[in-house]
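Following up on my earlier thread - several people asked me to post the actual chain instead of describing it. Fair enough. Here it is, all 620 residues.
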Amino acid sequence: MLRIPKRFLPYLLAVVFGLMLAIGYITYRVSENSGIEALADSGTRQLELHARGLESEIDKYSFVPNILGLEERILNVLTSPDPFPGPQNLANRYLEELNQQTSTSTIYVINTEGRVLASSNWRRADSYVGEDLSFRDYFQEALKGGQGRSYGVGTTRAEPGYYLAQGLKKDGKIIGVAVVKVRLDQLEPSWQWADTDAFVSDENGVIILASEPEWKLHTLNPLSPARREELARSLRYYWAPLPLLQVAQRRTLDVGLERWALQMPGGVKGVNRPTDFLAQTRSLKDTSWKLTLLTPLKTVRKTALSNAALAVAGFVILVILLVAWNERRKVLAARFAAREALERANSQLERKIAERTADLIASNDRLKAEIRERQLAENTLRKAQDGLVQAGKLAVIGQMSTSIAHELNQPLAALRTLSGNTMKFLARGKLETASANLQTINELVERMGKITTSLRSFARKSTEPIGEASVLQAADAALFLLQPRLASPPVKVVRELDDCRVLIDQTRLEQILVNLIGNALDAMQASPRRELQLSLRLLGENCRLSVRDSGPGLPEEVRSRLFEPFFTTKPEGRGLGLGLALSAGMATEVGGSLIAQNPDGGGAEFILTLPLAAVKQNHD
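Reply from S.P.:
Thanks for posting it. Predicted structure:
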């Protein structure tokens, strides 16, 4: 536990205050330098954007003087004797049209003596035609065979512009100079919308383009009296006083990177004292100009101050935490004895929790035993329910024994009669008649076999594992078995089937389809149009098989009892009423369903839904 004598407290406070100031100053400087670096990276991209825009604006007019050297009308006005108005008028009109097409300020042609012979502004009262421009430096450079490039203020209308001059030759000799004047100040509005300021200075250090109009025609460096007099005689800036730009302080940070304290023009941006800027300078291609981007450092300084304040606040918080920690240690020393008592109480509580946990474990074991008893009872109940279902089936068969006996007695009586007749026909040698009787006997036996097979299937308690069946194969087998009935009377069969495998035994699926198709054929016997439609659709994990006929449909009272055992709408002797009941039972046994409905367009439709075998395998 730290205890500081009171006599040392003033010295300690002085040290803490000094550390706080040092941390704030260091944080401010580091944050400011980091912000300037980030600002410089952003400014470099913006400076490059401005430079490329200005260079592109200049380059797109550089071809114009070369075009004039190929134009016959221009060469004629330079070689014709003076005065000769015909070639001059043709040249004026040509320059006027070319000026409109290229959107330049002015295009004119000067002879070797420096006099303007033709100009695109020849129609204006202040036309350049006839002026003496031999003093212009761009004319002198072009006359020497070079490319004249210069910025200047016009002596006629005092309009600034960029001049591109090129000597025009004929037979290898310069006969004149073509000049194109371009206004570049249309770029300044785009600079004014940015958060930064920008200006362009020429080789004399004179600002010729600027986002701040007040900066134009100011110099970046002091000019000697002799240099000022020389520029005044050249009329390059048309008697402009060329005052010095008020830069209070300039400090170089890196190549092309400076920090300026610039005195802004009065009232501009609401600032009357020097403003700090980050100045980035870049030379422009094919000129002696330089583009300077000025980015305000106001945001960087605010961020640096905020970071310094946060650092000081963090230091103060740390000191406060240290003091609080020292005080807490005092409190903890007083609480040490209480903690021992608390630990003893906690030990007792843990013992009680262990005892309670043991009780909960015993209760959980009893609950598990009860769950096992309930599961055993549930299994017993399920077996009892299965036995009741089977007993119900047998009871239904017992109740219908009279009907079953009746269904079997008729074929047996017919068999007795037909067998006796067949013996007589054989004795008489009537083999065809005997053969027909034997065929009838075979059909009666088959009918009786179907009745007994259906009853046995209905009464049997299924214990066989569920197999897989092909829908297409089952449909083919069913249609093959019922082919004689499909042929007479003829029935149109429409099949929209794709093969898929479903979760049911192949024999049972064929039995269901034979029953459904046979019922459909029975329903269409009296219909003028007999059409049987078999279609298949896949619905998620199930296969939906539809059997639709063109018969009269199903009355509502029939639909409600359709799947009851021994219910039939056929005449006596034509059916037992077990087919649909057995089919629905076989579908339900594998997790499917069989329903009946009257679709739009007439007829009846039975829909058999069965689970797909592949889905079952994936689940397993």
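The mean pLDDT is 81. That should answer part of your original question.
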